[in-house]
Amino acid sequence: MNIRIIQVIRRAAILLAAGAAVSCTPGVDMPKGTSKGFTSARLIQRDPQSSPITDATERQVHGMVQNSLSRQFSAKGLAYGKGGADLVVAYMVIYQEPGMTATYDDFFGYGRNPEEIAAVAHNRGAVSSGRPDFFRQAGIVVDVVDSRTNKLVYRGFAKGDVIKGASSGTRASRIDAAVAQALAGFFR
């Protein structure tokens, strides 16, 4: 069986289990700390044992997100990309159609409940959206973690409709705007 199919089935099972758990919880933790006092950041380290990302679109999107993160942090005066950084930046991409949510959490790391986030996103975006027509939407959740304490400092998100067949330039521009929106509160 294709590894990608197994991953989708696993994520669907996790979403179902998390959906049951989330119905009893008040919501997802959304700390709103700022960049004040920090001078550097880096991308979270992906599990070296995980399967390589082989889908061309998925690889392209991850590259665009990571380029945008680098630009956003650098533009705000934080050194970005070197080891020993003050902050660790993680992200999860969420894709939705009516009744369906898929997560791409290869660069989200561990210990911050991606299943719960996905379940809340599924309930709000795919189940309770109230949209009568077919839709495709994507979102990004960006976490900023203090590397010294391992505490979540900030979590932000952005979402929008997917433009089917968008050019690489359009896709990069929309991803950059979403990353900027997700991080806007962190850089105030």
Q: What brief labels describe this structure?
A:
six-stranded mixed β-sheet; alpha/beta; 37% helix
Descriptive report:
- By secondary structure, the protein is α/β, with parallel strands linked by helices.
- 37% of the residues lie in helices and 22% in strands.
- It contains four helices and six strands.
- It has helices at residues 3-22, 56-75, 114-127, 168-183; strands at residues 40-43, 79-80, 87-97, 100-104, 137-146, 152-161.
- Strands 1, 2, 3, 4, 5 and 6 form a six-stranded mixed β-sheet that branches.
- Strand 1 (40-43), helix 2 and strand 2 form a beta-alpha-beta unit.
- Helix 1 crosses helix 3 (114-127) and helix 2 crosses helix 4 (168-183).
- The protein is globular and about 45 Å long.
- The N and C termini lie far apart (47 Å).
Number of strands: 6
Contiguous helical run count: 4
Structural class call reads alpha/beta
Parts with pLDDT < 50 across at least 5 consecutive residues: 4-26
**What level of helicity do the residues show?**
25-40%
H/E element order? HEHEEEHEEH
| Biggest beta-sheet profile | 6 strands, mixed
Mean pLDDT: 88
Termini separation comes to 47 Å
Shape: globular
Give a summary of the structure in a few sentences.
With 188 residues, the protein is an alpha/beta fold.
What is the fold's blueprint, element by element?
Blueprint: H1 3-22, E1 40-43, H2 56-75, E2 79-80, E3 87-97, E4 100-104, H3 114-127, E5 137-146, E6 152-161, H4 168-183
Parallel strand pairs: 1-2, 1-3
Antiparallel strand pairs: 3-4, 3-5, 5-6
